[in-house]
Amino acid sequence: MKKGLLFSALFLVLLYGTMFYLARPSQNTVVEDLGKPPAGLSALDVMDHYYSGVGDTRNYYTEINNPKNKIANPLIIITGLEDITENWWPTAQQALAFGFQRIYIVEIRGQGRSQRVPGNSNTSAHIRYFTNYTQDILLALKEIDKTSGRPEKPPFVIAHSTGTLVYTASLPKIRRHLPAWEPEKISLWTPLVRPKISPLVNNSVVKPLLRVFESLASTLGLTLLGKRFYPRPFSENKLTSDPEKHKWSEGLRYSQKLNSSGVSLRWALEVFSAADQMRTDNYKVLSQPVLIFKAENDQVVRNDWKIDHPLVEVVEIKSAQHGLHIEKDSIFQEVINRTFQFFLGK
């Protein structure tokens, strides 16, 4: 039995190492000058905030205010994997134009300015348990409540990709501990319902072996090399059909050295299991209206899913890729208009 486990672990080491090697970016990739931000990506007057997440991680959120506006419901934006606050400036600008007084953009742990957690990959997103994410969301809201004050009206929430799963799974904690911050409505942009992953990670035979291997690697303190973030050529990107916004986003991440790239094995096992459980439970945590956007040309998450929930409406955005918030203006504006009309009942 022990020999079988050892053989399986060694096999997985070779397999996993090969996957990382094949995923390395080309050394010939050229970093272009950032130049001026495309229209809609100019800097906003933001306030930086940090709070202590699970394990005393130093996590980040930004606050944008316009007290002259009339909409008292705060807007909370939860970013996704390999995402940064600056990608959400156009959405925040639109929210200000629609009349929101308070906007908060929360970067999930290991992304952007939120601290990367040491794990068995030295550059990739890593979590020990999926509940680290959900507890972080609660701690972020507690910090916002403490720093900015309790909201007059319930918030509206936009969450993207991995952030959709993180936020949705956080709802029971929010209801129990911070009911004033339970959202009135939620919009999920290209949610992580069914990730596009290697079948090995969710294979009923291989998955337990991967968990054994991950446990051994963690116990022995092994660090797999992972891959360093490097700007992808536009032709290889899976997020947007707008070359200028792609160039801006990739270049900004590189210049800021906000370079978390890829995920650790532990991350994949924890997050994909949470996604499976959410589907199995048919999103029973939802008790408010939810508007979900699929992207027709999504290459990051799969679109072959249905959610049979009375409070959920699903809309597919034609010609769109995964990063709706940095998509070309015609696509972005459609998503923005639908989102805020949904929030404001117009």
Can you walk through the features of this model?
This protein is α/β, with parallel strands linked by helices. Helices cover 36% and strands 13% of the residues. It is built from 8 helices and 8 strands. The protein has an 8-stranded mixed sheet with strand order 1-2-4-3-5-6-7-8, with helices on both faces. Strand 1 and strand 2 (58-65) form a beta hairpin. Helix 1 (2-22) crosses helix 5. The longest helix is centred in the N-terminal third of the chain and has 21 residues, at 2-22. It starts with a helix and ends with a helix.
Features:
346 residues, alpha/beta, 8-stranded mixed beta sheet, 8 helices, globular
Radius of gyration computed on alpha carbons? 20 Å
Number of helices: 8
Strand arrangement in the largest pleated sheet: 1-2-4-3-5-6-7-8
* Element order: H for helix, E for strand: HEEEHEHEHEHHHEEH
Percent of residues in beta strands = 5-15%
Give the beta-strand count.
Answer: 8
Low-confidence stretches: 15-31
Q: What level of helicity do the residues show?
A: 25-40%
The overall pLDDT, averaged over residues, is 84
What sort of overall outline do the alpha carbons produce when their principal axes are compared? globular
Helix- and strand-based class?
Answer: alpha/beta
**What's the main sheet like?**
8 strands, mixed
Distance between the termini: 64 Å
